[in-house]
């Protein structure tokens, strides 16, 4: 287990940004999976700023997001496509054909799941997957109870997140929402994973993830078994696990 603890939020954001840039520089044909949310916005901004200051070749880099909302238009600011496009894909001039994202609207989401996974496999698989940590231990949109053998699928949203999305979009309860996400098995096949978490509100779940048993009740706990996973935390998120740092 590799555990990295940043002294503060700024150091955390810079370290996370350099995990992405370092992968691109080490392998200009890298396939890199990102995550969206409050934890990633600043680090994506740093990636874009560094690229603007010191441009490098991104023409062969493939970007995607670990998940995407379903049954919402891409015009919704909370869609992963929109956030990744605006925060990092366009600023880094990633070619459109190398920005792989499933649609947010589709007649057959099961087919879109298969297509998304095959597109990544066709490029040699995932070289680096950045993962956020949900408050209930989810990774991607794999909620507690998701089988570890799951592949790319459409998962229910976390109820609190779903309620927020419905408030922001005005989508009525009878209109089904969900999240197309890489499954646990698919994520575990990534060659390298960096799990990121910051803030004292994540400290309890970080402890469960790293010190508790590997269990489907805490999906992120399975990362204990990955041979090349780094847990990158700020000091607040790491306050219960500092004894694990090497």
Can you describe this structure?
- 33% of the residues lie in helices and 17% in strands.
- By secondary structure, the chain is of the alpha/beta class.
- The protein has one domain (7-130, 141-195): Rossmann fold (3-Layer(aba) Sandwich).
- Helix 1 packs across helix 2 (41-53).
- The radius of gyration is 17 Å and the shape is globular.
CATH fold name? Rossmann fold
Helix/sheet category: alpha/beta
CATH architecture: 3-Layer(aba) Sandwich
Share of β-strand residues: 15-25%
The unreliable regions are none
Please tell me the total number of domains.
Answer: 1
CATH C-level:
Alpha Beta
Mean pLDDT: 96
Give the overall shape: globular
Topology record:
Blueprint (H helix, E strand, L loop, with lengths): L1 E5 L2 H18 L4 E4 L6 H13 L8 E4 L1 E4 L9 H10 L9 E2 L8 H14 L5 E5 L20 E3 L3 H11 L8 E4 L2 H5 L4 E5 L5 H9 L17 E6 L12
Parallel strand pairs: 1-10, 2-3, 2-6, 3-5, 6-9, 9-10
Antiparallel strand pairs: 4-8, 7-8
Helix pairs in contact: 1-2
Features of the shown structure:
single chain, 246 residues, alpha/beta, Rossmann fold, 7-stranded parallel beta sheet, 7 helices, 10 strands, 17% strand
What is the gist of this entry?
By secondary structure, the protein is α/β, with parallel strands linked by helices. The protein has helices at 9-26, 41-53, 80-89, 109-122, 159-169, 184-188, 203-211, and strands at 2-6, 31-34, 62-65, 67-70, 99-100, 128-132, 153-155, 178-181, 193-197, 229-234.
